[in-house]
Amino acid sequence: MSELSTPSEGTVERWAWDYVTSTSLAHKLAPPPPPSLWSEFPTAIRLEGPGRPPELVPRETRKKAVRPGALKDPLKRAEVLHTFLHHELQAAELMAWALLAFPDTPTAFRRGLLGICRDEVRHLGLYQEHLVTLGHPFGSMPIKDWFWDRVPGASTTAADFVARMGIGFEGGNLDHGARFTEAFAAAGDERAAAIQAQICEEEVAPTAFALHWFRVFTGDVDFERWRTHLPTPISPSMTRGTPLNLEARRRAGYPTAFLEALAAWGTDRVEP
Prior knowledge:
The protein has eleven helices and no strands. It is mostly helical and about 270 residues long. It starts with 11 loop residues before the first helix and ends in a 9-residue tail after the last helix.
């Protein structure tokens, strides 16, 4: 991206740019508050990827899923929490990415993206605090930019983005979050369980946001219509956990027919 495309200093767009492109771990975990000024004539900017601090080393090999029963081991709990923190980081970055990529969308949509980004950053702090107590702060384990590899490249419209990141992966977090809340509690880690329960509850709102705007952008929240916005290799079953967190998903606004179709689709799943 050329310097000419860089948003003006002191704008929300520049804040989003700086967050995505920063190579400072401290900035990723605790960016300054965004300014109140939005660019008067923003242009579409599609950043190709995030800045990565040197502490965040890419994972080259496939990671085996941690079974809930193994979470009595503090190291295994730290592995899961480290992965979840990195998921939240990518979500925060991708909300900022979308804010830059779709400047022609309604102001309410872009303000919503900014609000969700800030909530995701707050979640980073919750995970990081507990990872420190476990002796494995963020950056002590390798990472994989799973969401970056699958969401922005083929998201040519805002409808694509909310379909994949919001309805799809944020929705899946409702399922995984509920399952791991129980698993952390069963392992005797009350703090990890409380953090996971809080974050799971707070993921309802951004999922509802995605469902609302998908309806605005496309006219309806229909399973088959949503599925057309999922590029290969993303499939509906990659956007769910087992079991579905039906209570939270219904509060977010998923139609009953949508949930029935999602539950019936395939068996392959995204790594937790």
